[in-house]
Amino acid sequence: GENVEQHPSTLSVQEGDSAVIKCTYSDSASNYFPWYKQELGKRPQLIIDIRSNVGEKKDQRIAVTLNKTAKHFSLHITETQPEDSAVYFCAAPHWAGGSYIPTFGRGTSLIVHP
Amino acid sequence: DAGVIQSPRHEVTEMGQEVTLRCKPISGHDYLFWYRQTMMRGLELLIYFNNNVPIDDSGMPEDRFSAKMPNASFSTLKIQPSEPRDSAVYFCASSLSQGGGYTFGSGTRLTVV
Questions:
Q1: Number of CB pairs < 8 Å for A and B?
Q2: What is the H or E stretch that residue B92 is in?
Q3: Are A97 and B106 a contacting pair at CB < 8 A?
Q4: At A12, which helix (H) or strand (E)?
């Protein structure tokens, strides 16, 4: 099955700094890479995703980059704000029972200090 | 749409009791997933359904766990008998297609004492 590794497990930054979270995956057939944000006590929510035919995607202060050759993708948050503090999960699909189903990374706890 | 609806939000039960968690997916979503989240193991896929049919239950920990989806708008996850190590947050999620993003429910925080 798919092996998804996410780093770092914890990231502490000052407000206004940038934050980068990286994930690697093993299945070269993977073609869809979402990122989820989970605030304390709440549900994971999709914040951005990228498909394998695109190298980069941006949405205001967040962006995702994909390197299919190296099998890694990264989440970039610029001008971080305290409300960005949360756990972020990456995911990459693996083949399970006839469908591509995401395998989640272990999560990165981002702390933005005001 | 109200999103994915789970109930109850919190459940505290005694070891040995039966626990039933419920989920209503987003209308029109063909895929439904049950996940368990713990600090130790992160987000684990327990089982998923496609068009109400269970497809992959290899993540179900043991025979004490069972899941059903009798129709397109309702699914249950049952634990019988429950054990303290089952304590976790259980999320239901639905998706329009296999290659798309998920919408998660609010989760059920289960505590087995």
A1: 55
A2: strand B88-95
A3: no
A4: strand A10-14
Tokens of A47: 């914040």
Q: Are A48 and A64 in contact (CB under 8 A)?
A: yes
Chain A residues whose CB is inside 8 A of the B31 CB are 99
How far apart CA B103 and CA B3 sit, in angstroms, is 7
- CA neighbor of B79 nearest in space, from B16, B26, B28: B16
Question: Distance between CA B111 and CA B24 in Å, rounded?
Answer: 22
On the question of pLDDT at B89 being above 80, the answer is yes
**Per-position pLDDT tens, chain A of length 114:** 668 999 999 999 999 999 999 999 988 788 889 999 999 999 999 999 998 787 899 999 999 999 999 999 999 999 999 999 999 999 998 777 777 788 899 999 999 999
